Amino acid sequence: MFIKKRRLGLLAAVTASVLISATAHADNYPDKPIRVVVPFPAGGFVDGLARPMMPLMSERLGQQIIIDNKGGAGGTIGTAEAARAQPDGYTFLMVFDSHAVNPHIYSNLAYDSEKDLAAVSRLVRNPLVLLAHPSVQANSVQELVELAKKDPESISYATVGPGSSNHLTAELFARQAGVKLTHIPYRGGGPAQTDLLGGHVSIMFLSSSLAIPHVKSGKLKALAVTSAERSPALADTPTLIESGFADFDVQSWVGLLAPAGTPAPVLARWGEEATHVLNSPEMQDRFKQQGLEVVADSPESFAAFLKKEGDRWGSLIKELGIQIN
């Protein structure tokens, strides 16, 4: 009986110690610089959000935030590094929509996306835009589909690689339209956009933040957006649902993660501060120009969204036979 009581006493002491430690951590946090891993090269979509956002986060938190670009292998190299980091609240990870599908594409990931990483918040989302080069003899989705049906090999589409959001979206579109499109993969968004602008490929599904400047300049035609509702930044461009594609709602997004085991108060603090920063006038002005929408959801909501996205695209990935070793 004495031994049992002693064990219970030790357990209570350990539990109290952990709670006190977590409380102290929350009270003193942060007391040193914080690293935010961006698992893509500088200049891309995710980096383009991190650069203006993190200085404002730094002001809110009272500590320097260092952006660490660790690109390669569709974002999986930097993600693996962040997943291995100490869960002490001093390492965070900004991910793109590819994060939810990478476990279905890469057969030997060095991390478990559900067990090794904790959801903090989905930050922003924006629709993809179905863009066409001016030489394409179609000014609507219906006309594009008619062209593809007349000549199955006439319409090519650019992507940033197999399994990317623009690849999966294009394949989903082709299946619903009942057409065959020719996939032209590139090593990055820059080369893909360059060839689309040059007329070397016919169409591309591109995030609205990157598509808007090309549409405004008249260099590319916007045939549709992939969100359920029209984008305020491209108010004259119909949705794919309006164009006859039922329930077609696909959006690109950026989210924030941390190593699993990061104290809950720290995750909550980052979620709250991120929401404040994203809704600041400075960021809102930027988002309005880029067609971005703030999401800023809870850790629980973001985790459920990641699971849903993975399930949504998993069957299509399997059907397409996309596998990267």
TrEMBL record:
Keywords: Signal
Family, per entry: Belongs to the UPF0065 (bug) family.
Stored InterPro entries: BUG, Bug_dom1
Descriptive protein name: MFS transporter
Residue spans crossing the bilayer: none
A Pfam family: TctC
Span of the signal peptide: 1-26
